[in-house]
Amino acid sequence: MVKFAHLADCHLGGWRQEELQKLNFRSFQKIIERCIQENIDFMLISGDLFDSAYPPIEILKDSFSEFKKLHDAKIPVYLIAGSHDFSASGKTFLDVLEKAGFCKNVENWEVGEDGRIKLMPHMHEDIAIYGYPGRKSGMEIEDLRKVYFNEIHPFTIFMVHTTIKDVVGTIPMESIEKQKLPLANYYAMGHIHQRYKTQEANSHYVYPGPTFPNNFQELVDLNYGGFQLVEIIGGNLKTQNIQIPLKEVVCISIEIDDGLTATQKIISELDKFNLKDKIVLLRLKGVLTQGKTGDIHFNEIEEFVRKKEAYVFLRNISSVQVQDTGFETVSLPTEDVENVELKIIGEYSQKNPSNFTKHLPQLMTALSMEKNEDEKSFVFEDRLLSELKNILKLSEVL
Question: Could you tell me whether strands 279-288 and 312-322 are parallel, antiparallel, or unpaired per DSSP bridges?
């Protein structure tokens, strides 16, 4: 029997709030402890170990301490870069970890004259582990359509940090059909911050989810971080998602219609809950018929939540709208705003002729795209960048 752990999207150093950054790292520590207790044979980290290619020194020091625990327990760690800890220069602090002997970056390939990308495996006994890194804005997807393995092994793992089409569904963002990936027994995937697994024939496609939620909506959806524990018994594979509960998450949704009286209404609603030592998420929604969001005294609300001994408090007001006042806007006598914009663009293009200027109207339309309600930031960013790449026809030259 072989037992291994599959982690992804740790984003160490990602939270701005000190309390949540501590929880993020504590969840990572707990996973390391659990893996050592489980006496796993090896660990996989499928990208975004750090939130950036150059994390703060304190994050690095604490991370090295955890990797030393795995090293002392004789548990090898295999990893790849993700879209956050990837660097175009090819140099990241993952190299420092590897140089210290704490991990092995399994990214290894060569590009043939035909443009195809041959991946070479790292062998853990008779298990072949292949890896290909994630890149910013889904730029790895075009490459993944060209990668291949030229060997067959008893058991193959493919570590990849990307988005498969099954996960995003109809959302217009860069993704790849899982059938386009080289054949493997276990696809150790990262990048999508949700727990997902599916099986086709003898192939298992798994996103373990982040080791800790990385934003407001992920705290709502996931509550906790976790990882995947995988066992290979004979020719069979058993996998389970292990969650790491640290603090209870309380999400409170309040509808408001008056910015002038909202403060007291919110405090009154919050007073109904036991908030002690909990992650408190306040989501406001509604249409303001009087006042504005600036009239809400969030400092008073935060002080009240502190007195209720909450662990940390986050708020989201993206669903609050201000009612149309009904005042007529001053309009130009003969041309609307869109026509004025087109006229300005036309004049600019005549003075500055180039291939780029012809795309300006489409680019302005694309850049006016709005983030959908509850749409995760990385999904919106990928959707926007995908649209921009299509306009500029970047995929033709990548």
Answer: parallel
